[in-house]
Amino acid sequence: MGNSKAGLSFTHGVWAIVTKDLAMELRGKEILTTTLMFALLTLVIFNFAMDLTSLTVKDIAAGALWVAFLFSGSLSMNRSFLYEKEEGCLSALMLAPLDRSAIYFGKMIANLIFTLTAMVVIIPVFTVMYNVNVMESFILQSLALFMGALGFNAVGTLISAVSVNLRAREMMGPLLLLPVVAPALIAAVKISGGLIRGEPLEELTAWFQILAAFDVIYLALAWILFEHIIEE
Amino acid sequence: MSTPIDTPLIELKSVSKRFGRVAALDAVDLELRAGESVAVFGPNGAGKTTLLRIIAGLIKPTSGGLFLGGEDLTHGHHDEARKRIGYISHQSLVYPELTARENLSFYGKLYNIENAPERAESLLNDVGLKTRADDAVATYSRGMKQRLSIARALINDPDIILLDEPFTGLDQHAAEMLINLLIRLHGEQRTIVMITHNLKIGLDVSSRALIQAGGKIRFDKPVSQIDQAGFHDLYINVVGGAHY
Amino acid sequence: MKFLKDNAPIAADILAVATAVFMALSAWMVFNYAPMEEVMGWPQKIFYFHVPLAIMCYVGFLFTFIGSIGFLWKKDFVWDRVAVCGAETGVVFTILVLATGMFWGKPIWGAYWTWDPRLTTSLILLIIFSGYLILRSRVEDETLRAKYAAVMGIVGYADVPLVHYSVKLWSRGIHPVLEKKAGDPGMHPDMYMALKVCFVTFVLLFFLVFIQRLRLETLKDDVERLKTQR
Fold first, then answer.
1. C2-229 topology per CATH
2. 20 to 30 A Cα–Cα from B242, which one of A33, A47, B152, B200?
3. What is the pTM (predicted TM-score) of this model?
4. How far is B216 from chain A (nearest CA, A)?
């Protein structure tokens, strides 16, 4: 019995989960609408809280943008594993002939795509609203945005796999996640801000190194730790 | 299957499972042969679900050993073992946001099965969901969701089928459908382990009955040797002595 | 482990006496033995307590890290207790570091709080490991609690070097850093002596608190076990 082919490859497993999450998001649009609305709201509030006049905007722009991404991201990140918990689907993923870490990487890549999508929408809006060209240095800025989003989602997906099991999980997710991403936030704001102000690349290399270290350390840790979270 | 007929298909050797300080299973020994259909009865908290989840590879025993076809799986199921198992939980294990067809197609991908669309189609037919296959599962009734979760568990054509109270939430019609399906699967020489509170249905579709209480198996007999009329009294008697 | 458990009360008593003696000695050395710093005056005395505390809070979080790895590896609750006691002691010591830093900062810098890299690093670690302790209170089942906490303990500790370097680079700080030359501690020899004695005192205090907390946690565990055995 059993008409299965040979085992599913790691990348196919990851991809199956990514496409499933994207299909679900296209149906419900819960994560993207929340993220976008909250990010937009943060920018509007920033405008009132700080005087984003043309003189100071280049100094504050990167900070406002990253805070918007991080806060909106940490709120919607919670949904990710809630989908797997609600009807016990995580058990079904664990029953399937699939490496445990493929579940993590599938969820992480889907979350990363949501963050990047939010960035693609928010940055043009920000550019128009505050009259500052964020993408002036296009390639380096894209790299910084990607590396920041990767680090945030690497540790965020891991922590949301934990926080989904806690009482008051809506509060616990951001509470656990935001302090841990502090180094990535500092580095990302420094790089993005530096690029907007047109600082020379040499002054930003150290920050790129910190951001890269953050990404590598948390991807490696998640790869090791994730199965410990879901195994009983 | 490569398993010789005289070695048990599934074997638990003195398996214990503790959650914190609570012992859910207490040194359980159990041998299941290929083609057996086993009903597991017992009160809530007897450790029935834990037993099923250990066989499924969802949790690992605290001590003792689990063997499948003589192979030691105590420290986890490899891919080949997982492909042989179908599991129906008391949760539906399907995504409410997706349609029935999308759910089956996703799980089909995970099991890397050939002819996935045809397989999904015939399963949807088997559980009577063909007309609603393209509706989001969130719009389904409890019974329909339960039928889809049965189809989901069979997507990989498993020869070991584990069911955790599959009759909960099913209406008369759906329950009959499931009974017929179970009888058919048993007829195809698949191994079935089913937890149920319904003594009558359990005995009707099974070849062997277990009663579990307090983390131990307290009763184990072929259904052919059981006096069905007196089984309820027997059950109360067996269970009554156990702490739960 | 049994040897440690049987001898823990004696060890704790010895530690308590030693800590008391050294604490008195430290106080005497700081205020009577070490010379008055010419520029800063009295507030400089805080330095003798602040520096050892700052080092010992990292030791506390290191215990959390080791305990977390130990639990995930061995699934033994002894390691979980080491982790939680390390975090609690570390958090209390970090609060003391921030408090002493602020009392020193007011007269010297003119403000209680400055976003100085070392203070900022301590603050972020305080928030991370307070989160670790809050997480523990949000799970009923003790196996799950130990497991989730262990993951968070490792994730949090891995952040220590990242926070340290990023915050250091972020602000070239105003924190006084002793100019170190070979064989020269950068301060008056009597000050250095007082600092060394204070350091020994706070090592003793740390382990006294840590061991007592560990004993309490072990006793709690024994009580729970006796309750379920009935």
1. Four Helix Bundle (Hemerythrin (Met), subunit A) (1.20.120)
2. B200
3. 0.91
4. 20
